[in-house]
UniProtKB/TrEMBL annotation:
GO terms for biological process: cell division; mitotic spindle assembly checkpoint signaling; protein localization to kinetochore. Component of the RZZ complex. Belongs to the ZWILCH family. Keywords: Cell cycle, Cell division, Centromere, Chromosome, Kinetochore, Mitosis. Its main location: nucleus. This is Protein zwilch. Essential component of the mitotic checkpoint, which prevents cells from prematurely exiting mitosis. Required for the assembly of the dynein-dynactin and MAD1-MAD2 complexes onto kinetochores. Its function related to the spindle assembly machinery is proposed to depend on its association in the mitotic RZZ complex. It comes from Glossina austeni (Savannah tsetse fly). Pfam families: Zwilch. Gene3D superfamilies: 1.10.287.1880, 1.20.58.730.
Amino acid sequence: MSAKLANIYESLLRKYGEKYTITYKMAPTYINNIIGVDENQGKILLFYIEDRSNPEVADSVSLSKINIKKNNKGDLDLTGSPLRDDCAVDTIDDDIYINDTNLICDNPWKLDEEWHKGISLANARGIICSPSFQLCPAAKESVGSVWFLCLPHDIKKTLLLQYEFTSKGFSRGIVHYKGLISAKAITTQSLLKDHFFAVGVESTSIETKIENIYQIKNNITIRCSWSTVSPLPPLIDLSTCDVILNQTFRTNSCHPLTDDFLNQLRILISIREDILAFKKSEDSDIIREPVYRCGIGIEISEVRENINKAMLEMAEFLPTHSTDCDIEDVIENAKLRRFNDLTDNLWEILKRCSSYKNLKMAFNVLFQSAARSNIVNTPANKNRLAEIITEIANRRLAIPCLSGSEPLELLLEIGLEKLYKDYEYIFVESKICSANDMRTKWARQDHKEDEATVLNVRKSLRNAVFQPENTAIRKTLLQNDRKTSNDQDDLVGFKNSTFDEIASGQALAKLFQIHCTLEHVIMMHINLNLSNVYYEIFDQLLRRAPRTIDQIHDSLIDEIEIPLSAHYIRDNLQGKDPHSRRISITSSDKFRQVKSTFYFNMNNICPANILEIINFEEQMLTKENMYYHWLYRKIISQ
């Protein structure tokens, strides 16, 4: 769309802005639903009257438009300039889902669209027909649509008028509300008759585009679409249509079986947040002790007992099941299975510590146990804590004295690895993919290093423990070729932690993406039973770029659109009426092109201010499905 449409907006705003509300932005939902998103791919001009007389609408909209970030740390900071507003406010343009789940809008329109009210049809036509509008100097080079929301008080219930500036001139469009219609009354013959009645003569060139949307659940829809030049096309085709599966996962609607994994992800995000907060305080004048706020509490004696038990238990080989297993059963087994690796067990033990002090003490108990015991269950995971335990047990490293955020950093690293292995177990055991597929998808992260460059030799631990003066500190003399994260050229001693802010953020983003993939697969399994396409879904979803997340709010959503073959969904949709239908018939001759779009929906898509419809009783008296019906007619001069 040409930017010159903004010039028309300025001109119309100066002339009509005091009487009407004129906006220049993306089309509202009710327009896109009726005419289709493809018809309005850019911003539009919209005339309407803003009516805020309903206080309930005003309150709900104001809550949905502003999301104030609360300070979870409970620190009251009275410093700062009185001339600067430090309140962190995010403006939400398109997402109507906010933190209070009681305020989530279930209507097919956005909350601020409930303020929209039409202008009189006569005034709208008067503006369109005025020479100042059609002969506007900026209109000559502009491309785009001007829409007028109208009061549907005429006989034909005219709802919208459209004037579109095109490169060849202009085109006109109009939307009528046609009332209620039964599913059986929607036939190809009746739609063609309506279309050609408006055209006047039957054209030899005709094209029909059909889009049927089936609603499986409130958050699951299947869109079937196709186009044809047949003179009498079928209105339902489940054999050759293009199929798009749309699913929305909301974190406040997590499946009960996967809730534990999402909670682990929340804990890991919280740990990383506390690490970054401490590192930020180190750069300031006020240095605070790190905090750990995720544990439910565990006695040190229990920590010691559990650690000793984990170290002395013999690891068992757990074979992969050769038979197909239901994914819900696999998830349940994943939560109850025995962890073979030592650091996986340590994650379950250490994350229960009630505070940073207890966590630091638990690590000290762990290192002392490693130094005094003969470890039977040698850690096999590739993380820094496993390296430290192995070095201590082999008497090649002194007992470390963790400081600062190092306990949190070690806990974060083993937690990331353990949660990844949980997801890997689920996907592999349910036969969705192989372990190699999981590793390949995981390795696509930008921060992932080649395994050949991982630490090959051990380095000395410098100043790891407090020693009396003139006492030699035990060191190793082995070297390492890898540079530090700060790209320093000089070699450094054995570090207690290899925490990296960017790498940890990418790992958390990837884990959240994997969890969302699992949720989508479960939704498909329960509602559609599409077991044959699970790997295809898995592959497509994990090819997406992960999005960075700072917190997992209840309002967080993950929406997907996945193309499927028609034969996968035919049995699920056979004999069912679509929830909504959009049928566009286009015919043309040498003078003009006429397009008729018939839109049907089982729900009213317009707020009460735009189209007030009395609840119909016909649906209660019949077993047939009833549709609200709108007609969009567009005429383009050739």
